[in-house]
Design a protein that fits this description.
By secondary structure, the chain is an all-alpha fold. It is about 80% helix and about 0% strand. It contains 14 helices and no strands. α2 crosses α6, α6 runs antiparallel to α12 and α10 crosses α12. The longest helix is centred in the middle third of the chain and has 34 residues. The radius of gyration is 21 Å and the shape is globular.
Length: about 450
Amino acid sequence: MSFLTRIIPVERDEWKPVLLATAYGFLILFSYYILRAVRDEISAEDRGNLQILWTAVFLVMLIAVPMYSSLVSRYSRAVFVPIANLFFASNLVLFWFALQALPVESRPWIDRVFYVWASVFALFVVTVFWGLVVDLFRNTQGKRVFGFIAIGSSVGGIVGSGFTAWMATLVPTFVLLLVASIPLVFSAWMARLLHHASEVPNTALRQEKGKIAGTAWSGIQVIRDSRYLQGIALFIALMTFASTILYFQQSELVYGAMTDRGVRTAFLAKIDLVVNILTIGGQGVLAAHLIRWLGVGVVLAIVPAAAFIGFIVLGLYPSLAVLVVVQVIYRAGRYALARPAREVLFTVVSREERYKSKAFIDAAVYRGGDLVSGWIYAGLAAAGLTVGSISLVAAPMMGIWVAVGLMLGRAQERMAAEGGDDGVPAGAEVPGEPTASTPPA
């Protein structure tokens, strides 16, 4: 066990909740990666309307986040987390019914509604999952175990994308929607088990102390008053810029190379499969040790630095093969390194910020960044810029992203030192009020 602990730094009393959280992550990402290739194939088919669809996603997010925040204020985490997962599972059944009952002529509009829904789903279920995990594990624990917990997500991604690559050309799409709803139901049960694990005597986890204060809009107000949270929001916005540019380029190049929708879906699922296979080792072993050796800030800066190099190479050699390599490296780095490090940033803030502000940043800011970046890409393309030219335009933004990551890391370490092992500085639990210890991002 001591040898295993040196490789995977999880302590004896943490294994049960860590494994529960890992299983929870597996279930939601298994469901998501069944749907991801379906969604991405729609984007290739309807690529001319992508920026319009992303505008719709952002508007839906502006409605969904306050609704979720209101739910957070009313109920215990043992209630509102399962409700969120069961809500999305029921939606998939409704989409299946629509595909069965409505005429074929309505398929393009069902596709568009599904694309918007899936884009909201993709962020919300992951945000809810990590919100619960960050609320359970303390700062020092998060640096050690978040990488391992993320393994469950990658394995779920491998199983989901592998399943989709196998089944996409064999069964109708609506069958995949029904399959994807099943793990979401089980994830609701897993969330309740995680909460109950925090209630046992002498637990290593943070216990829930009453409902979360504030209103449906207070999470947004807290961001307004916290330069630290504003820095996290900027980091997310720059990340979405890089992801969006690559996503639009992928849709354009994939559509140009393949005409059959089933073939495109299977190809995109295979990319997802490779990404998740490469991610596992980095999450299980590399992430935890790099965060402890190099610090949160340096780990946050690794992916932006890789993106800078990737955009330069893609600018010089704008082909589908090069794009696939850049996408795989970029996405594997995001999931293996940036994701665990990013979640550590939230271990030093209040519970209201972990659930409400985090939901706004991870959902509304993320999709707002998608929206702005999508229109930027559309504008550059309309101006006559090619895939290669747009890549070279995007590269300098990655330098800013590197700097933001380094500054956030320094701020997180300072707040963690002031808050002790729990990581939350004194006074941080007061909803809506910035603390003196909140440093600039």
